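Journal club prep, shared notes

We agreed each person brings one worked example of a sequence with its structure written out as tokens. Mine is UNC93-like protein MFSD11. I'm keeping it raw so we can talk through how to read the token line rather than staring at a rendered picture. Sequence first:
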Amino acid sequence: MRPRMIIQEETEKKDQDELTPTTGKSTNSEGSLTGETANTEQDQSHELVEGAENKIPTSREQPEAPRRNPCISSSTRMDRKLLNVILLGFAFMFVFTAFQTMGNIQKTMLESIHNEDNSFNGDGYTSMAIIYAVFAVFNWLAPSVISLGGPKLAMLYGAITYVFFILTFLWPQTWLLYLASCIIGTGAAMIWTGQGNYLTLNSTTATISRNSGIFWALFQISMFTGNLFVYFKFQGLKEIDKDTRTIVVSVLAGVAAVGTVMLVLLPKAQKTSSTDEVNVVEEPEGPVQALMNAGRLFVTRNILLLSVTFFYTGIELSFYSGVYSSTIGFTNAFGENAKQLVGLSGIFIGVGEVLSGALFGILGAKFTRWGRDPIVMAGFVVHLIAFFLIFINLPNSSPFNSTNEEAFISSSATLAILCSFLLGFGDACFNTQIYALLGDVFAKNSAPAFAIFKFIQSVAAAICFFYASHVGLYAQLGILLFLSVFGTGTFVFVEWGERKKKRKEESEDDTESNTNTEKF
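Then the structure, token by token:
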């Protein structure tokens, strides 16, 4: 109490010395204590506060620790999460530079192997159908695996199976091709469900569209980097000889291995809290619970509606990634450069994917103010244009083997490559917005939501690859046209419903806030 007494004495002395007639107060020494008691007490109180702030703290009164700036902390966390997304994108870019390039050339490469060795009967479409069929089945187990080991381990296992699959092309055996197709199918389920979960864990409601676009753009760079390599290696070749195959497969396997190492370096995803204004991702209690959660989510209204959209993306995925480039390579009207155009087609599919992903994903904030549905509708229109141009430019029998059949117009290589670009551009419009929608609406169930998405997509892809060997090009385009209409419609319907729901919740929050304010 000693510091307080000294301050009070000094205050009283100061008041007595400084009072003057011009202030309207008494110059009497007693007046400072009687006539102006209220003013004096206010002055004393003010100086006591100043003295208390300047006095030396005692052992009982320790200075407060400096507070952390929550804005800086949150910004640092967001930067770290963005780096995680970028590293994830680069890892997938390397892994799928190898796999997507292999998928693009697999049909034509296996045909060359069969021409050298009649005992080899492996078929590229059948291999891809097996991959996606197994992929579909194991998608139901992927959330359970992630609940045990997390998304990073799931993705790492998946990447290893991709490396193994590519290496089997160094020893072409029919049984080995189909066995490797089964194995990579299990890995595909793990790597894609893990990717969706990891992306959601590193995103907020505000950043999910941006992060989806960044990932998609980096991922789809794989389409033109790998195919650019193939374009030059296949230059002037009518058949893909053994030496060329060995070089291509070895390089692609090495690239996939680099991506696998990058997944090893990927930081472990951390569950975030609502105080950071991010999507809270609740991990399942265990593998059985995760499987049950996926089953319950599958029969919800929104997922059932979105299933049509998912199915369409699976059909068009298999068409652009495995069927379309082969139809170009089998069209003899393109002359000696037909095989080389297979690689060029893959390059321009990738250019379309990256451009669309960058435009609607990375710059998504400028577009998503109007919602996600305009972007999907833009992709729908682009695909309609591509389907029509393919219909008039390529012969009906081109998906099967080399053909001299004529198209409705004189087949144009330029037009064929333009369609490759349009297919890639439209595909990214759909996929970036599906990722954004699932990461936003199903943030608390991201693993099962992405597993269901990939399940339906892979079932559709498997079906497409099964009928691709038996159904002509024009019928395949008709299927794509039919599904694109309904797939776009169901996505728009769900998006409008979610937007209406959010507006209603915001209105209720504003009403409640105004009510609480009026009470005070």
